């Protein structure tokens, strides 16, 4: 079973201090609900070159979900990204089970397990291979659970007359604090926190979608009240009406 990094214990290192943070470059911290993790216990310390090759082997899989590698650094007493000049006694291989684009399928699960087996052989590590079918089943269950909460609440701002040009939409969005994040998409944020998303199906456009991305917004931002207020402001600026789909 997968456990958080802070709960791992191996017999010879049971008393080691576990840190509250990790030195992985993307800030990843294992989440037992989202990640499937394989722990490789090396029979002897491996150098950083071998660890980097293991990470490259994992990267070459190009899995549709994030795959990560961490190593235990006895000097700093933390899980970290491998360094060419380091020496390590344990390796963690992790794959995210699901995201909005879908769940880890059996074929990709089998590829991940196979790569773990090859890495274990290369570094002379103990390894208990999980069943790819069980891993895919776990991913499907997570995807099904999360789908219940992956909700958008949308209001449509419909033009009363001719479609709006791209410049008109951009000016109205910017005036209300939205920033463009991609073609036809603007986000309203408070600091790092998402509040509302504005999208245009095409430009010029005769309607815009103003949405609350429910799993990502904070309740204390009063998202529904903000959504109705911003929709009214957009309608006033663009000579439009608000439609509740």
- Main-sheet strand order equals 9-10-11-12-8-13
Shape: elongated
Q: Give a quick account of the main beta sheet: strands, pairing sense, barrel closure.
A: 6 strands, antiparallel
Supply the helix-strand structural class: alpha+beta
Low-confidence runs of at least 5 consecutive residues: 1-21
Task: Work out the helix count.
Answer: 5
Assess the beta-strand content as a share of residues: 25-35%
Average the pLDDT over all residues and give the rounded result.
88
- Please give the share of residues in helix: 25-40%
Could you state the order of secondary-structure elements as H and E? EHEEEEEHEHEHEEEEHE
First and last CA, distance: 44 Å
Q: What's the Cα radius of gyration?
A: 24 Å
DSSP summary, beta strand count? 13
Task: Quickly describe the structure.
The chain is an alpha+beta fold.
Commentary on this structure:
With 245 residues, this protein is an alpha+beta fold. The protein has helices at residues 48-59, 106-123, 132-147, 166-175, 223-238, and strands spanning 35-47, 67-73, 78-80, 87-96, 98-99, 102-103, 125-126, 152-159, 179-182, 185-190, 193-199, 207-213, 240-244. A hairpin with a 2-residue loop joins strand 9 (179-182) and strand 10 (185-190). Helix 1 (48-59) runs antiparallel to helix 2 (106-123). The radius of gyration is 24 Å and the shape is elongated. The model is unreliable at 1-21 (pLDDT under 50).
Which secondary structure elements does this structure contain, and how are they paired or packed?
Elements: E1 35-47, H1 48-59, E2 67-73, E3 78-80, E4 87-96, E5 98-99, E6 102-103, H2 106-123, E7 125-126, H3 132-147, E8 152-159, H4 166-175, E9 179-182, E10 185-190, E11 193-199, E12 207-213, H5 223-238, E13 240-244
Antiparallel strand pairs: 1-4, 1-7, 2-3, 2-4, 5-6, 8-12, 8-13, 9-10, 10-11, 11-12
Helix pairs in contact: 1-2, 2-3
